[in-house]
Design the sequence.
């Protein structure tokens, strides 16, 4: 397959970036989007040119490192898939593909398609934990959790922290990300003890960092590679009102 | 935002019910209803709350929108292709359109009652009937109500989501009511305009 | 180098750890505040250790090469965590878990260490549960388990197919709590490029800030490596593409012995390579073998679509060769059997390097719904990657490099041969012998990080309380930084034509072909020559655009590949020296007449710990004899 790539190139955080167009050929349909970029970079490096920088690591959709805005979609046009698992067969031969970095004030561009998502860590540091010291945990089965609650907590807990929700949201809101963690702990008895403090500090931190507000458009849910549900946001709101 | 919006939602059916009286050939019931709304003390109090809700909704809407714009200083070059309800992304604009209409509306009616604009506050029936004879007014009126409908589509269920409702039984009900509400209310207002314009 | 001392405490097996803890030297809370500890790596072991040490009151600095600690590759572990809770009343116990691990490791691990890991496993489950890890539960609200990895009890705690993710995020949350408290400082996007040893003790590290490209110095009273395994030496593996062996290798070059490097587990069920640009082999959980049947066509190079091959023309080779265990034989056996069929010309798919994993019969028997509820997410992942529907057509699978049992040699306290340098998690060699039991890695890395290291490190640090804060201005830091800088400068100055990745691929192929699932003397000897040649070519034709002092992904890769050449040589030498077959290490020369592994306990019941003797010099082998007082060494049989 053959593609025209319009890729955002930006030398560093301070530099002014621009789109650069590349033509790429001999891409097989089973290659992943990142492998296609690997092929592009191979050519660039062989000519001693600066390759396109992007974050990636596990390449199996679980580490949350990768993420780019492809033709108007975070992680590309296929739902429930990270960029590393997005296969090229989903594109038309000869198609022009525009690739941009995540755009949000709290996610400044580091280089090309790499952005700084440490804001998400800061929110987690503000309260995304249960305060238990090593060694002080009670016997595991002394904490009973309804199966349904445990399953729901898991469904919220599978967030990979890629930031696609922020990238997708017209307001660059991190509400889905925050609500997933809040929900996971709110659903478990272990997490209830600090629930109020947790939601207050995490929401406050989120607002401080410059993320936008949630206006319930549902873009985050539609683009989340792990299909985290909007109901988490409603739960976050409830938890927040309870903590007022 | 959500609470103020929901309060505003309550007002619309009342206004619509009174407007249906415009379809009667006798101006009296409408004018009496309008008079009642203008003078009854309880309604007066509600009116104050309503205005407060309107101002809160308007100001917080603008405030949040500014924060939201600031949260993405560099825009994407390719517009989002995420599949969501299209107009949910344009609440500020549909809201602004509704607000513009409200201003016109105040000039046409409310300010007469306050004595700021010339006219007979006791005969809004005729004022309305006169206005609906002007085609341009009808077109603006219809357009605004279509935009209101689009605003309401998202507003109704969004408000409940913001208030934390995600119950598996009630959520679909709320969503269904949202659809009905967003169609019936604007359609009601619009039908009055169309009937008076085209058939009277 | 003196004789290796494993420091296993005296006394009966079941009392060793308790006795150790009762007698270990402690550091008072006031003194802990004065002591600094560096932890490199933020997987379950690293994050767990950092948070546990922070809770104790030490000053901890944590480093990872990713943008956030939550990306560490423990996140990709699927199956579960073993623990000897015996919630199922099926006869499990700490001893039985210990026995399964010792047997699974083919009697090449230490009794004392393994027993301790099994013992601590129960605390691991308690702790993760308290941290909010959403393990699977029964309707009554209690935790549920599954049977995993071909053992006879059900002791694996799990969170669907994402147990590693949930455990890692649990560890990340405890890490965050300490970061908020200020006991732990996090340094992301930093790659450790050298260890600083002062007067024989580990005192700091040199890292490269991957954003600015600048080298940074950090000092501490002790250094803990939790840097994972080196399975990417095969290039294609189930590991994250940036996983590497450099930190451990740098420590090795500074004096830490490297143990059993050739013990690498090959996982039998991963999605095979589909194209030459493929960067990764995605694991399909072993649990699939509970219901899937593995087969190849009976006829050589049969190119018919799988569904058109009738039942009688299919060879269910595992069921044929191992009637007792069938498709559930251990990982190493399943892997070798697949390779044997493919090498004999029966492989399927475009490359002929794949076998079928077929769910047709299971779907017929249990219904599509039942299969979907068990493996839905794996089936989705398979069809996302390959574009074929495993409900309709058998999966194609092939073995892939997965887990390194080998690693830095550590004693019972998890300290390497450099005083003050610890290695935990996959980066050490200690608990899995020659082959790791399924669901034993999350267990071991959590045990190391949360429960073992925080108890043992005090024994060393108790003598260090009078040592002032380590200055990073000393000559040792300068020398280490200079060494690193010179190497980086050299890498960017070659200005050749080939990418680091292309060298990595070629090295990986040499390793896979000659030092992978099946090894022999001729192949290994040949591999040594090939590695040398390729390394020479690397240093003369590598292309790394850009400079050292900027963000430079190619430089990062090139540096890791350069270390892999050295590690590869050691790996091959270790495989050559071990003239027996055990666990994942299969030497063709040493097999039974029917093709099974032939262990040689008389000559090789030892840990091969290799000492770095200097640039270009052969490594020196030190042997730590393994003694088994509590188990009888048996030949594994799955027939």
Sequence:
């Amino acid at each position: 397959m053959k593609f025209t790539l319009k890729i955002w190139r930006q030398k560093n955080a301070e530099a002014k970036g621009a789109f650069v167009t590349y033509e790429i050929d001999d891409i097989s349909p089973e290659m992943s989007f990142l492998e296609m970029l690997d092929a592009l970079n191979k050519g660039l490096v062989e000519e001693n040119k600066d390759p396109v920088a992007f974050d990636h690591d596990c390449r199996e959709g679980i580490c949350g490192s990768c993420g780019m805005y492809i033709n108007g979609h975070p992680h590309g046009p296929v739902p429930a898939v990270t960029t590393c698992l997005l296969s090229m067969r989903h594109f038309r031969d000869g198609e022009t593909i525009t690739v941009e970095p995540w755009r949000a004030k709290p996610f400044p561009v580091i280089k090309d398609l790499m952005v700084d998502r440490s804001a998400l860590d800061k929110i987690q540091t503000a309260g995304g934990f249960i305060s238990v010291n090593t060694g002080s945990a009670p016997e595991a089965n002394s904490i009973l959790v309804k199966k349904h609650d445990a399953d729901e907590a898991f469904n919220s807990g599978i967030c990979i922290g890629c930031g696609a929700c922020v990238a997708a949201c017209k307001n660059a809101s991190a509400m889905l990300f925050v609500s997933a963690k809040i929900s996971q702990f709110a659903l478990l008895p272990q997490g209830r003890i600090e629930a109020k403090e947790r939601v207050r500090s995490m929401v406050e931190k989120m607002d401080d960092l410059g993320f936008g507000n949630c206006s319930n458009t549902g873009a985050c849910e539609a683009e989340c590679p792990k299909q985290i549900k909007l109901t988490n946001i409603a739960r976050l709101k409830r938890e927040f009102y309870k903590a007022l | 935002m959500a609470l103020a919006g929901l309060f505003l939602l309550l007002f619309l059916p009342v206004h619509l019910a009174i407007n249906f009286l415009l379809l009667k050939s006798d101006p009296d019931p409408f004018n009496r209803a309008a008079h009642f709304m203008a003078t009854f003390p309880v309604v007066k109090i509600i009116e104050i709350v309503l205005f407060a809700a309107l101002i809160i909704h308007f100001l917080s809407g603008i405030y949040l929108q500014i924060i939201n714009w600031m949260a993405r200083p560099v825009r994407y070059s390719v517009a989002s292709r995420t599949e969501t309800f299209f107009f949910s992304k344009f609440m500020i604009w549909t809201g602004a359109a509704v607000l513009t209409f409200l201003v016109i509306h105040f000039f046409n009616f409310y300010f007469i009652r306050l004595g700021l604009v010339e006219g007979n506050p006791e005969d809004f029936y005729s004022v309305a009937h006169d206005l609906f004879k002007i085609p341009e007014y009808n077109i603006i009126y219809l357009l605004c109500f279509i935009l209101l409908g689009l605003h309401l589509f998202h507003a109704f269920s969004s408000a409940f989501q913001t208030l934390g409702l995600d119950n598996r039984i009630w959520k679909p009900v709320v969503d269904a009511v949202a659809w009905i509400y967003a169609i019936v209310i604007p359609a009601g207002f619009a039908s009055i305009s169309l009937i008076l314009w085209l058939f009277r | 180098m003196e004789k290796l001392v494993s420091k296993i405490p005296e006394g009966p097996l079941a009392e060793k750890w308790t006795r150790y803890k009762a007698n270990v030297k402690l550091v008072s809370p006031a003194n802990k505040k004065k002591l600094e500890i560096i932890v490199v790596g933020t997987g379950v072991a690293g994050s767990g250790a950092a948070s546990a040490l922070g809770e104790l009151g030490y000053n901890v600095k944590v480093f990872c090469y990713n943008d956030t600690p939550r990306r560490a590759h423990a996140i990709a572990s699927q199956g579960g965590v073993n623990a000897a809770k015996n919630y199922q009343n099926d006869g499990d116990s700490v001893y039985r878990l210990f026995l399964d691990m010792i047997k699974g490791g083919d009697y090449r691990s230490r009794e004392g260490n393994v027993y301790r890991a099994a013992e601590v496993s129960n605390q691991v489950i308690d702790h993760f549960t308290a941290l909010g890890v959403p393990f699977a539960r029964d309707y009554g609200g209690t935790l549920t388990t599954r049977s995993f990895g071909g053992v006879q009890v059900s002791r694996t705690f799990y969170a669907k197919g994402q147990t590693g993710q949930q455990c890692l995020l649990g560890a990340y949350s405890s890490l965050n709590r300490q970061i908020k408290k200020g006991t732990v400082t996090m340094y992301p996007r930093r790659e450790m490029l050298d260890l600083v040893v002062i007067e024989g003790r580990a005192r700091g590290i040199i890292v490269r800030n991957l954003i600015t490209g600048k080298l940074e110095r950090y000092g501490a009273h002790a250094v803990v490596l939790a840097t994972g395994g080196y399975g990417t030496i095969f290039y294609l593996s189930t590991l994250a593409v940036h996983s590497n062996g450099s930190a451990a290798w740098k420590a090795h070059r500074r004096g830490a012995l490297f143990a059993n490097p050739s013990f690498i587990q090959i996982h039998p069920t991963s999605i095979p390579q589909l194209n030459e640009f493929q960067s990764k082999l995605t694991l399909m959980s072993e649990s699939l073998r509970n219901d899937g049947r593995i087969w190849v066509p009976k006829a050589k190079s049969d190119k018919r679509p799988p569904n058109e091959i009738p039942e009688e023309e299919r060879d269910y080779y595992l069921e044929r060769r191992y009637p007792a265990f069938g498709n559930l034989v251990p990982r190493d056996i399943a892997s070798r059997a697949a390779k044997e069929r493919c090498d004999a010309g029966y492989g399927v798919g475009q490359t002929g390097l794949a076998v079928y994993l077929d769910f047709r019969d299971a779907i017929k028997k249990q219904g599509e719904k039942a299969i979907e509820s068990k493996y839905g997410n794996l089936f989705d992942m398979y069809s996302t990657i390959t574009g074929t529907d495993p409900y309709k057509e058998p999966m194609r699978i092939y073995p892939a490099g997965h887990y390194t049992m080998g690693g830095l040699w550590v004693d019972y306290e998890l300290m390497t041969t450099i005083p003050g340098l610890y290695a935990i998690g996959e980066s050490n060699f200690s608990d899995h012998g020659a082959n790791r039991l399924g669901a034993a890695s999350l267990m071991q890395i959590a045990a190391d990080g949360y429960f073992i290291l925080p108890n043992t490190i005090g024994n060393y640090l108790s003598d260090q309380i009078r040592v002032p804060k380590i200055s990073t201005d000393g000559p040792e830091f300068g020398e280490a930084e200079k060494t690193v800088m010179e190497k980086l400068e050299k890498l960017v100055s070659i200005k050749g034509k080939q990418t680091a990745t292309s060298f990595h691929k070629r090295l990986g192929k040499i390793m896979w072909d000659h030092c992978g699932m099946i090894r022999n003397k001729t192949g290994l000897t040949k591999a040594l020559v090939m590695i040398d040649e390729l390394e020479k070519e690397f240093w003369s034709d590598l292309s790394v655009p850009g400079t050292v002092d900027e963000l430079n992904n190619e430089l990062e890769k090139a540096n890791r590949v350069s270390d892999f050449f050295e590690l590869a040589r050691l790996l091959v030498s270790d495989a050559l020296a071990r003239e027996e077959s055990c666990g994942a290490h299969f030497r063709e020369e040493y097999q039974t007449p029917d093709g099974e592994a032939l262990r040689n306990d008389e000559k090789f019941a030892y840990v091969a710990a290799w000492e770095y003797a200097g640039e270009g010099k052969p490594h020196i082998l030190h042997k730590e004899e393994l003694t088994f007082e509590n188990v009888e060494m048996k030949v594994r049989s799955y027939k």
Notes: Strands of chain A lie at 3-9, 18-24, 69-70, 73-74, 96-100, 109-111, 114-115. Chain A is about 35% helix and 10% strand. Chain A touches chain B through 37 residues (CB under 8 Å). The longest strand of chain A covers residues 3-9.
